[in-house]
Amino acid sequence: MLKGKVALVTGASRGIGKAIALKLAEHGADVVVNYVNNAQAAEEVKDKISEMGRKALTFQADIADRTALEEMVDFTKQNFGKIDILINNAGIVRYGTITDMSQKDWNDVVNTNLTGMFNLCQLVAPHMIDQNYGKIINLSSLAAVMNLPASYGYTATKAGIAAFTRVLSAELIEKNINVNAIAPGIIITDMLDSLGDAAEFYKAQIPAKRFCDPEEVAELAYFLCQDVSRYIVGQTIVIDGGLAL
Ligand code: NDP
């Protein structure tokens, strides 16, 4: 289904990004595997994709660094010739009450989750407009619609991502570029550790009575990358086992 397509997946060394990178490759896409620190994990993802017979390269870039993003986009175009799919997945969470939250934590979260996504969309969109084709998927969160205590920066950026997605989607759909977002509930990744003891509290409230595998989020991302879903525009699709009901 995605044979001949080129995907750039941020934060693809671990967790949801890794699952999406592997899923898109399984369905035929060539993939740039972005990471920030964990080179070995990124190389392992690259090797798995290569074993599937697809082309994959890793690229280290801090999403909060616009110059690094410019280099990553140039690298992708030089090595793969184009960018069809952009998955803005990389994200971080920092917790603190309104009296405790440091300015640095706030800025780190905003610069990574929100400004990084804006910058990468701005760098990739002209290319997608020129080729009159593209799929952009941004990772929001259930935190955008439901209280996640002491997560000021995270929640504000994830709600911002949903709003940004609406605006960008309306601008780009006439260029045959679909922009949508995914809002996961609680997914089994390293980020889950940040919930600590609260994880079990939340699990008891999930109607599905379990957390979600990253592969289930990847299936949704794959659906949004297919042309069969091309009439879905600017949506933030919740995948949460019913937690927000
Ligand atoms: P993980 O913490 O498991 O993985 C984060 C990934 O992002 C890693 O690949 C990491 O790279 C990369 N990354 C982190 N910071 C940067 C940066 N500055 N620049 C480039 N890459 C970076 O996260 P998840 O897989 O759990 O989450 C992925 C996305 O899904 C995030 O946007 C998150 O907010 C969202 N989400 C997750 C939920 C969950 O329950 N897990 C729920 C709702 C939303 P490296 O390995 O090099 O550190």
Structure overview:
The chain is α/β, with parallel strands linked by helices. It has seven helices and seven strands. It has helices spanning 15-26, 39-51, 66-80, 103-131, 152-172, 198-205, 214-225, and strands at residues 6-9, 30-35, 56-60, 85-88, 134-139, 177-184, 236-239. The protein has a seven-stranded parallel beta sheet, with helices on both faces. Strand 1, helix 1 (15-26) and strand 2 form a beta-alpha-beta unit. The longest helix has 29 residues, at 103-131. It is globular, with a radius of gyration of 17 Å. The mean pLDDT is 97. The structure holds NADPH dihydro-nicotinamide-adenine-dinucleotide phosphate. NADPH dihydro-nicotinamide-adenine-dinucleotide phosphate binds at residues 10-11, 13-17, 34-38, 41, 62-64, 89-92, 112, 139, 141, 184, 186-187, 189-192.
What is this entry, summarized?
Helix content is 45%, strand content 15%.
Low-confidence stretches: none
The chain-level mean pLDDT equals 97
Give the helices and strands as they follow along the chain.
Answer: EHEHEHEHEHEHHE
* Strand neighbour order, sheet with most strands: 3-2-1-4-5-6-7
Number of helical segments? 7
The level of helicity is 40-55%
Rg to the nearest angstrom?
17 Å
Keyword list:
45% helix, 7 strands, binds NADPH dihydro-nicotinamide-adenine-dinucleotide phosphate, globular, 7-stranded parallel sheet, alpha/beta, 7 helices, 245 residues
Topology:
Layout lengths: L5 E4 L5 H12 L3 E6 L3 H13 L4 E5 L5 H15 L4 E4 L14 H29 L2 E6 L12 H21 L4 E8 L13 H8 L8 H12 L10 E4 L6
Parallel strand pairs: 1-2, 1-4, 2-3, 4-5, 5-6, 6-7
Helix pairs in contact: 1-2, 1-7, 3-4, 4-5
Bound molecules: NADPH dihydro-nicotinamide-adenine-dinucleotide phosphate.
